[in-house]
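step: validate -> pass
step: tokenize input -> pass
step: predict -> running
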Amino acid sequence: MELNDKLMKQIADVKYLVRDNAYKYSTIIRFLFAQYEKLNYYFIKRIFTESSRNMSFFWIVW
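step: predict -> pass
step: emit ->
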């Protein structure tokens, strides 16, 4: 894929992300991603637990 002028043109709506406040936004994004990871892990664990309780094989182990 060739990079043309349209692809390299700056997007005015996100200029604030690469300017003076970039460190603030990267900190916020990092925090939100960490919270997402925790939440995602919680839901996967919960779904596995609930679905395994519905299987008769796992009732022997529980």
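step: describe -> The chain has a mean pLDDT of 72.
step: cleanup -> pass
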